[in-house]
Design brief:
The chain has 435 residues and is an alpha/beta fold. The protein is built from 14 helices and eleven strands. The strands form two sheets. The protein has a six-stranded antiparallel beta sheet. It has a five-stranded parallel beta sheet with strand order 9-8-7-10-11, sandwiched between helices. Helix 2 crosses helix 7, helix 3 crosses helix 6 and helix 5 packs across helix 7. The protein is globular.
Amino acid sequence: MEPVLECAARRTYADRPEMFEARHRMDAPTTTPADSGPGGGDGWFASGTTPAERTPPPRALVERASPDAVLVRRTMDEVGPVASRLTSYFYALLFVRHPELRPLFPVAMNTQRDRLLKALLTAAEHVDNKLVLVPYLKNLGRGHRKYGTRAEHYPAVGECLIAALARYATSTWDAATEAAWVRTYTTISQVMIDAAAEDEAKAPAWWLAEVVAHELRTSDIAVVTVRTDQPYPFLAGQYTTLETPWWPRIWRNYSFASAPRSDGLLPFHVRAVPAGWVSNALVHRARPGDVLRLGPPAGSMTVDHSTDSGLLCLGGGTGIAPIKALVEDVAEHGERRPVEVFYGARTDHDLYDIDTMLQLQRSHPWLAVRPVVDRRAHLQLPDAVRAYGPWNEYDAYLSGPPGMIRKGVDTLRALGIPHHRIRHDSVEELVASAD
């Protein structure tokens, strides 16, 4: 393979075939034990940061796909229907062959199994598109530092991944396909290893963060404000992973609810979801003085200050948090570009931050805030955008439930906004971090 990813695969697994001996006769279980409860956590292939867009590769790119990319995608097509069994088998195999790695993972693995496949699909889908895949893998490598992942762990993961694929891709797996996966995984893992090593020289693996304020806005939404033990650099619109002391090794993603502040405080908006371990702990259990852990910042839903394009922002539920941060960011840069915010909620009661947004509107004449209440207006947030505009000169930002983002992207594309001007955090990411 002539890898599109430009990295030096110094630890070339293709040169060590014994690491990928399939061992098909091994009678490993197809499900992991003790998979009760809604939790999960990030880990080796957790989609800690995914490409902001899930658009298919351009036709020209597909037509010139490398032979390895063709084989990798063919494998993913076959294993898709048995994804749950494949990922369960992978983790069972990993923990049987390498039990020393089990403490790095949370007790409950059901969400973790889903994340493995999503990350694999992302890598397979974009294997020939380095502009998408390399940033994704670099963020993934940096994010894995907080789990204690080291370079010497990657061969064990690759070994078990290849064995799991060989077991379930029964009709397409052959020597050429295995070699393609070995080369692809070698390249993927090296990008992650190099990114982690580079990050280690300039940032900690995680930050300790003390809760300094906890404000219950509704019965299930809280604004949790923390102060980190070291300076925490981030950009408005980004998010972080967060771990509570009550559920070790279970990390969830939360957006910063403000632009960087001079006092260093970091506010988060958290909704407690049914059976959500982390969200319920943050809303109902966390109090000032508790210490959390934060992973590195991630996400590309940030303002491009090199242009004067207007901002069209759709924030649903607690998705208003990063939208508020974007508004503050524009204000702090002294810009007067038009910013249109559509704030969606199911009921008036769910507009928990409307007073703050209206105060920002009163302070900045270039800002318009439009509440959209589903049950009162009898239409969903993306549909409300159609009544205004035109939006062809705007950059669009979406944050909220996965369904809203999916429909919002379709609506905005239909209104003439090109996909490269539509920014949002990955829908798959939101699903994986919903509790």
